[in-house]
């Protein structure tokens, strides 16, 4: 338990304080739990995708991380870097 000072002021003019309980978990265990949970299977995305509001593909939807350009560009560039490294290692 720790005592924290907030950003709100009470009626008495003093900054509000609160005692909170902090929990700690290993982030790797958290990710393993999320990925391994069958109830979340249909809600997980592992590859980027371009989503559109129309059949012609003219109006993009950006509503989740995997529909954005950053994930697409990162995954594609990582794939090409790994492929180049693999080719360089096999030539030796």
Task: Describe this entry's structure for a reader.
With 92 residues, this protein is an alpha+beta fold. It has one domain (2-91). Helices cover 36% and strands 20% of the residues. It has helices at residues 27-36, 69-91; strands at 2-9, 15-20, 51-52, 60-61. The radius of gyration is 23 Å and the shape is extended. The protein starts with a strand and ends with a helix.
Quick structural gist:
The chain has 92 residues and is an alpha+beta fold.
Which features would summarize this protein structure in a list?
20% strand, alpha+beta, 92 residues, 36% helix, two-stranded antiparallel sheet
Give me the secondary-structure topology.
Blueprint: E1 2-9, E2 15-20, H1 27-36, E3 51-52, E4 60-61, H2 69-91
């Amino acid at each position: 338990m720790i005592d924290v000072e907030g950003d709100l002021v009470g009626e008495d003019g003093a900054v509000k304080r609160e005692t909170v309980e902090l929990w700690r978990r290993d982030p790797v265990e958290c990710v393993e739990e999320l990925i391994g949970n069958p109830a979340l299977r249909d809600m997980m995305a592992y590859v980027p995708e371009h989503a559109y509001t129309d059949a012609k593909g003219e109006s993009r939807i950006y509503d989740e991380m995997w529909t954005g350009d950053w994930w697409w560009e990162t995954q594609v560039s990582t794939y090409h870097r790994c492929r180049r490294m693999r080719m360089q290692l096999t030539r030796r």
